[in-house]
Amino acid sequence: MDDLELNPKIISAVRRAKLASFAAVLNLSPADIGRRTKLSAHDIQTLLQTVSRAVYKNPSATALEVYQGTCDKSLQVATVSTGCGVLDEFLNGGILTRGITEIAGESAAGKTQLCMQLCLSVQRSVENGGLGGGAVYVCTEDVFPSKRLHQLIQTFQGRLDATESKHLRLGDNIFIEHVSERDQLSHCIKYRIPLLLQQSQVKLIILDSLAALFRCEFSSGEAVKRAKHLQTLGAKLHHLGRVYGIPVVCVNQVTANMTPSSANDNKSNQRQLIPALGLTWSNLVQTRLMLGRTDYQLTLDTSQHPENRIETARDIGDPEGLRSVTEVPVRSLEVVFAPHLPRDTCYYVVEADGVRGLR
Fold first, then answer.
1. Looking at residue 137, which CATH number applies to its domain?
2. Largest CA distance in the chain
3. Are 238 and 276 members of one domain?
């Protein structure tokens, strides 16, 4: 209290009232401070504002300063490339390094494919859209698709320039953790991941998926208990992302909501997909991306790149002879909400060499 720049009259009154710490002042209401110090309302307001500024150490900035990049470094927002230029353009640079980004979607929508591609992209230098560090991948459902990851590493290595290709060992910087219970997940986030973060080995946290644990461990009558555990987990993830300036990506499952397609026809229902875990989790998410399947397929000519051929490839005849084509399902990526993006949808395909956006 003695180090505060206050009027000597206020300091003397505070000493007489034996308010020797910041906590002693802030734990009292203005009326209680007035009764104990006999200060005017203006002096009490000055005292509270001065103490509050001394306690709250986090820097602040205006929206214009954040936009221009002139704010404190801890408030500057960066992005991590998705590994695809089209998707990066759609997402205004990629995945934000602030807050929790949720990737929700139905089965076979490409959620895990996109997350594995992020694990590779984050290892690149800042100039190339990465953060120059590894990734920790917490898997809660099926066995981690290590064979597919190895395939992506081989194709992704070919995109790097000579300098990056020489120094980066993409497979050595991805830390995979399997958890099957909520307590194991909590221990991993509270103790194991911070150790890697302190050693600057990890620049990305991926949790795939959250709903797998919370759906099975809580019954329908334990909604309040589940909400408290979700809030605790979300607070831990936000803390790690804020302290270390890294993105946190959480994969989520979806629930089908059958609603009538029109007011006059209650027999015809339309399936609407809603992210799982309810409003409690939604309020903890900063950016929500919804991945889905469509009824369209993209036909690709892979005669020049036989390594891209997949199981659905077939040969057809044309005037110039046989030509190899591949039919790839088209998937959609929708921005449900984000602080920096409008609600919009783009389309992409999952090929042998990764996720590729369509213009």
1. 3.40.50.300
2. 99
3. yes
Among the listed residues 122, 125, 114, 178, the one whose alpha carbon sits nearest the alpha carbon of residue 149: 114
Q: What is the CA radius of gyration of the chain?
A: 26
Say if 263 falls within a structural domain.
Answer: yes
Phi, psi angle pair for 281, to nearest 5°? -70, -35
pLDDT (tens digit per residue) in 25-79: 999 999 999 999 999 999 999 999 999 888 887 777 888 887 777 887 767 778 9
Q: Are residues 160 and 252 in the same domain?
A: yes
Confidence class for position 225, pLDDT limits 50, 70, 90: confident
Q: What is the DSSP string of 91-102?
A: TTTSEESSSEEE
Please tell me the distance from the alpha carbon of residue 161 to that of residue 163, in angstroms, as a whole number. 6
The answer to whether 182 and 137 have CB atoms below 8 angstroms apart is: no
Question: For residue 303, what are its two tokens?
Answer: 């005669």
For residue 195, tell me if it sits in a domain. Answer: yes
Same domain, 27 and 168: no
The residues, ordered by sequence, that sit 6+ positions from 104 with a Cβ below 8 Å of its Cβ are: 111, 251, 252, 253, 254, 275, 276, 288, 289, 290, 291, 336
H/E element, 85: helix 85-90
What the block records as the tokens of 82 is: 């998705």
Residue 100 lies in a domain: yes
Query: Quick check: is 38 in a domain?
Result: yes
Comparing CA positions, the residue from 243, 335, 233, 345 lying closest to residue 281 is 233
